[in-house]
Amino acid sequence: MGRAFAYVILGGGVAAGYAALEFARRRAGASPGELCIISDEAVAPYERPALSKAYLLPQGAARLPAFHTCAGANDEVLTEQWYKDHGIELVLATRVISADVRRKTLLTDSGETIGYKTLIVATGARASELEEFGVRGSDAANVCYLRSLEDADRMVGVMRSCHGGNAVVIGGGYIGMECAAALVANEVKVTMVFPGKHCMGRLFTPKIAEFYEKYYAAKGVVFVKGTAVKSLEVSDGKVAAAILRDGRRLPADMVVVGIGARANTGLFDGQLAVERGGIKVNGRMQTSDSAVYAVGDVAAFPVALLGGAVRRFEHVDCARRTARRAIEAILEPSGGAAEEGKAFGYLPYFYSRVFALSWQFYGDNAGEAVHFGDFSPPGAGGKAKFGACWVSGGRVAGAFIEGGSREENEAMASAVRSRAAIADVAAELGSRGLGFADEE
Ligand code: FDA
Ligand code: NAD
């Protein structure tokens, strides 16, 4: 047996960083042997969203330590020194290869067994691979995935070597849209390929998607929709073209793949209850084993706003809040956190920023979407402002807003949180000059 800790956080991403901060705040630091974070990444936890945005800028790109967690939530970012100063052990570049929840031990790839009293699983998700869809070529030198800092460094190198060339972006979700914008900024020509009818199919309505697709097209991005990549033409270890199911051949100097993510649950197969592709937890983030908690992308939890329905979110706000929630529940079992089994009062919140655009979404895109604002392309220097409310039973279930001010974003969030009547939201929007759009 190697070392043992009272608390072990398994995974060193966003949720781990916020859990460490919450722990340090509540305990004024940790004592030796109390808390450790085990991560297979070589650096302390960082704000992963930066990787597809500021990290890829052609000039003035963000680099660590500037975006370690918890930028925005703390006066200082949590560098390796911060963990040292707060008595939290960082076990970096170390992969946990098996877990035994009965014995309360983790085995690392360095052969060490690490024991815990309480485990917080924060293993996040991994990028789905082309091979899972029967397409070979992920190992080619110019094929890029984007999940980790290592991936981002690789992508920057490939992107720089393709200046003026062609990129094929596979997938029209978050990674596809954000990377396409970054490629354009780096003067690489982009063709996006995905099977859906429009981009961001899981969230956007056709009308919202149309706005972004037109905006991207004006920047030179070509959309190839309703088909998928059948194979990659590889020569000398590099992809030269993507062959589509409909027979088309798209020449490629590089390929970016963003075809979804899968929660990293494998270590706990057969040991913890699962739901929605993640580890099932109660409203306190506690799994089916009372000594094990799960947070972030890997956790599926009951959401009070959705009547206690179990959901799993792959978004940074959720990672931050579930991490704090778990620490609160662990350190203050009879405190503010809801009693066991109760749903978590979490308001789902997603956002993205591309080019000069910035959108926010709150709640659930269930029910009928009612659009508001002006969907025409903004003129030079102009700002787009529009959105949609999803209405279910006459009440707002979800809200999307592009170009909202802080106050407008907060107003939308509060309309969803309070499940406001749609008539009230219409009046509120009207008073701000954001009338409901005519549906064609
Ligand atoms: P996260 O993936 O951050 O961390 C998991 C950690 O566990 C990693 O360090 C991993 O290496 C480690 N790990 C896994 N298995 C392990 C093992 N067996 N042993 C040791 N370590 C292990 N969201 C959003 O709301 N807005 C945004 O703009 C973006 N942008 C964005 C860009 C990019 C490029 C990505 C990939 C993702 C986003 N996201 C986002 C999503 C957001 O980043 C994501 O929801 C959080 O990072 C989830 O935090 P977690 O800590 O759960 O997982
Ligand atoms: P996603 O689920 O958002 O999008 C996947 C896309 O791939 C969809 O357009 C889908 O139609 C397409 N697709 C699926 N199978 C395909 C195939 N065989 N060929 C071509 N296209 C296919 O996933 P993502 O964009 O890969 O993002 C990965 C993770 O990163 C997610 O967890 C996401 O939440 C997170 N992320 C979030 C943000 C954000 O919140 N702003 C930004 C970047 C990444």
Q: What is the topological layout?
A:
Elements: E1 4-10, H1 14-27, E2 35-38, H2 80-85, E3 89-91, E4 96-100, E5 105-108, E6 113-121, E7 125-127, E8 143-144, H3 149-161, E9 166-170, H4 174-185, E10 189-194, H5 206-218, E11 222-225, E12 229-235, E13 238-244, E14 249-251, E15 254-257, E16 261-263, E17 274-275, E18 278-280, E19 292-294, E20 299-303, E21 309-311, H6 316-331, E22 349-354, E23 357-363, E24 368-374, E25 385-392, E26 395-402, H7 406-417, H8 422-431
Helix pairs in contact: 1-6
This protein binds dihydroflavine-adenine dinucleotide and nicotinamide-adenine-dinucleotide.
Structure keywords:
single chain; 440 residues; alpha/beta; seven-stranded mixed sheet; five-stranded parallel sheet; 8 helices; 26 strands; 22% helix; globular; binds dihydroflavine-adenine dinucleotide; binds nicotinamide-adenine-dinucleotide
Q: What would the average pLDDT be, to the nearest integer?
A: 95
Structural class computed from helices and strand pairing: alpha/beta
> What is the CA-based Rg, rounded?
22 Å
Number of distinct helices? 8
Percent in helix: 10-25%
End-to-end Cα distance? 67 Å
Total strand segments: 26
Protein described:
The chain has 440 residues and is of the alpha/beta class. Helix content is 22%, strand content 29%. It has helices at residues 14-27, 80-85, 149-161, 174-185, 206-218, 316-331, 406-417, 422-431; strands at residues 4-10, 35-38, 89-91, 96-100, 105-108, 113-121, 125-127, 143-144, 166-170, 189-194, 222-225, 229-235, 238-244, 249-251, 254-257, 261-263, 274-275, 278-280, 292-294, 299-303, 309-311, 349-354, 357-363, 368-374, 385-392, 395-402. Strands 1, 2, 3, 4, 5, 6 and 19 form a 7-stranded mixed β-sheet that branches. Strand 4 (96-100) and strand 5 form a beta hairpin. Helix 1 packs parallel to helix 6 (316-331). The longest helix is centred in the C-terminal third of the chain and has 16 residues, at 316-331. The radius of gyration is 22 Å and the shape is globular. It starts with a strand and ends in a 9-residue tail after the last helix. The mean pLDDT is 95. It binds dihydroflavine-adenine dinucleotide (FDA) and nicotinamide-adenine-dinucleotide.
